[in-house]
Write a structure and sequence with these properties.
mainly alpha; 9 helices; 2 strands
Amino acid sequence: MFRQLAGAAAGPAVLHLVDCSLLTPPRIGPDGRARYLLLETLRAFGLQRLADAGERVAADVALARYALQMAEQAAAGLQTSGGERTAALWLDAEDPITYQALTWALDHDHDHATALRLAMALTAWWRLRGRAVAGYTLLRATAGHAMQGQDAWSAAQLWLGHLAHSMADYDTALGHFNRSPGQPCSGRSVA
């Protein structure tokens, strides 16, 4: 991931941080990929340094771009019988990154479309991992910034209905399904 965010030249810098004990040596994560760990205090210090240098926004944008690309790729993997496990493990390992990117995109008016796309890419994983309540809250917040009737808004209504159904909130699920064009549910039970 660091190469995608910081470029290929970041490799020596990352190794130097490991040598200085600021990053742990890479360990294999749940998805089989090597992962570095960073203490939260060092992360906060690094973020402050980025802000002081005027580079924080660019770093946040790059992180959101990476998270969106990764989540959409993993979401596609969740739709295949052979790729579901691999995709789910990848999203498990990237959970802190996707959450950080999603909350950042929600907090910035110019990036609500990214927030919605990212939330929709994560919805199947949220359902799979039993995170329907948290996922519903995040997706509802992102869908609130979409224009009613647009394709993204309609797709979000469908996913919100599925998440509400997973929470056994059938009336809310029915309301979302009825707002999603092409998904008429009135008069039918979703239980």
